[in-house]
């Protein structure tokens, strides 16, 4: 059968969004996102408040709640996605990764103290540490993606990811060095190769996705983006990112299904612009809040011209600045969900198209192990995603 019948709880959609698309028919909408700014904002505010009161411990429960909500508001061909991850998995993974990273950083500091004044050796150790750190970042990103896929279900069947995080990280490191050596010219090759590795190791049940992109088809677009970087004040890089996304989408296959995207640079630019304005306003609020706290709690009349006014701040002033900073950072996180993530998901889903047919009833559950590890290393390195 072509596609599945619409689920009873799915939002109302045009017939073209749920019907099969044969090879001679135009592309049809693949995904529908019916989340609202209010529902996303409500969860984001609760997460921010509880995160402040628990000194950040609630972040794992907050992230899990947000994922469950966002996943459940996305419908693919009539059936909603489902997120089955647990907050405790994220917390335990974070603790294990934090201990490991603390040990690594402690070892670096200890060795640097032992070498003393040997500056050449200190620089070498720092370089090695940075190389290891970037390796761990790529390693963590791949493992985090695997975790999210294994905790995502559609029609009761979960996604999965094969491949090796170590192999992915080594490839990424080699390509990163090559890109640096060529002054950025091989960036499309790096992106295309890593996208190929991720997609070709992605599964839905017992069916594998396929990617057949070629970096040569992106190279001159990347060169054009670099040439226009200064005249366009960097907007050319955003244009390239959207172009790259559309290209990667068009080179992805799932059985008899082919995908495409009509996402435009202007749509993405407006999302970034609104978020940037909100960020700037919050930054001004932070600066104003810090200035207000200092004005109220610091006696500047006793500060000489040669004195550092910050050295005369009382503990109350310091506490006030810390609280103001935490509040503004929490507000920024809320704004990020409302004005960036929410509209970006909507923009991507409403422009994602599909052609072709596939028998979804023939797809069986994957035998990939779910595992109990979360994405702790990505959280520790701050490269995780919602």
Key attributes of the depicted protein:
59% helix; 11-stranded antiparallel beta sheet; alpha+beta; disordered N terminus; globular; 11 strands; 386 residues; 12 helices
Sequence-ordered SSE layout with sheet pairings:
Layout lengths: L14 H4 L9 E2 L1 E3 L3 H17 L5 H14 L1 E3 L2 E5 L3 H29 L3 H32 L1 E3 L2 E5 L3 H17 L5 H14 L1 E3 L2 E5 L4 H12 L7 H16 L1 E3 L2 E5 L3 H33 L17 H36 L1 E5 L19 H5 L6
Antiparallel strand pairs: 1-11, 2-3, 3-4, 4-5, 5-6, 6-7, 7-8, 8-9, 9-10, 10-11
Helix pairs in contact: 2-3, 2-11, 3-4, 4-5, 5-6, 6-7, 8-9, 10-11
Molecular shape: globular
| Structural class by secondary-structure content | alpha+beta
How far apart the termini lie comes to 34 Å
Which H/E pattern describes the elements? Answer: HEEHHEEHHEEHHEEHHEEHHEH
Strand order of the largest sheet: 1-11-10-9-8-7-6-5-4-3-2
Radius of gyration in whole Å, from Cα?
24 Å
Please tally the helical runs, counting DSSP H or I stretches of 4 or more residues: 12
Structure description:
The protein is of the alpha+beta class and 386 residues long. Among the domains are: 84-160 and 370-380; 163-200 and 214-250, no CATH class. Helix content is 59%, strand content 11%. It is built from twelve helices and eleven strands. It has helices spanning 15-18, 37-53, 59-72, 87-115, 119-150, 165-181, 187-200, 216-227, 235-250, 265-297, 315-350, 376-380, and strands spanning 28-29, 31-33, 74-76, 79-83, 152-154, 157-161, 202-204, 207-211, 252-254, 257-261, 352-356. An eleven-stranded antiparallel beta sheet has the order 1-11-10-9-8-7-6-5-4-3-2. A hairpin with a 2-residue loop joins strand 7 and strand 8 (207-211). The relative contact order is 0.15.
């Amino acid at each position: 059968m072509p596609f599945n019948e619409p689920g009873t709880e799915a939002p109302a959609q045009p017939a073209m969004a749920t019907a099969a698309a044969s090879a001679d028919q135009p592309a049809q909408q693949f995904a529908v996102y019916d989340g609202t700014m209010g529902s996303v904002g409500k969860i984001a505010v609760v997460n921010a408040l509880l995160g402040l009161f628990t000194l950040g411990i609630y972040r794992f429960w907050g992230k899990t709640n947000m994922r469950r909500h966002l996943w459940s508001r996305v419908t693919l061909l009539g059936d909603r996605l489902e997120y089955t991850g647990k907050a405790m998995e994220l917390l335990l993974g974070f603790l294990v990764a934090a201990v490991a990273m603390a040990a690594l950083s402690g070892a670096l500091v200890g060795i640097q103290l032992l070498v003393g004044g040997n500056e050449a050796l200190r620089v070498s150790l720092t370089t090695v540490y940075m190389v290891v750190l970037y390796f761990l970042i790529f390693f963590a990103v791949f493992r985090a993606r695997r975790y999210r896929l294994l905790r995502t279900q559609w029609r009761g069947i979960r996604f999965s990811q094969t491949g090796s995080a170590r192999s992915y990280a080594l490839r990424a490191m080699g390509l990163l060095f090559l890109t640096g050596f060529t002054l950025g010219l091989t960036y499309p090759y790096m992106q295309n190769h890593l996208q190929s590795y991720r997609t070709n190791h992605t599964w839905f049940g017992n069916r594998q996705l396929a990617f057949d992109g070629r970096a040569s088809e992106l190279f001159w677009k990347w060169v054009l983006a670099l040439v226009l970087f200064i005249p366009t004040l960097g907007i050319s890089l955003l244009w390239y990112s959207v172009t790259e996304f559309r290209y990667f989408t068009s080179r992805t296959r799932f059985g008899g299904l082919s995908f495409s995207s009509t996402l435009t640079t202007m749509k993405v630019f407006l999302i970034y612009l609104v978020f940037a304005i909100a960020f700037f306003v919050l930054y001004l609020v932070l600066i104003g809040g810090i200035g207000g706290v200092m004005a109220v709690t610091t006696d500047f009349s006793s500060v000489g011209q040669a004195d550092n006014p910050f050295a005369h701040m009382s503990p109350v002033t310091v506490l006030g600045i810390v609280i103001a900073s935490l509040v503004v950072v929490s507000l920024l996180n809320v704004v990020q969900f409302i004005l960036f993530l929410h509209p970006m998901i909507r923009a991507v889903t409403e422009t994602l198209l599909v052609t072709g047919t596939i028998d979804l009833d023939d797809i069986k559950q994957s035998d990939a192990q779910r595992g109990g590890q979360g994405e702790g290393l990505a959280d520790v390195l701050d490269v995780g995603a919602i």
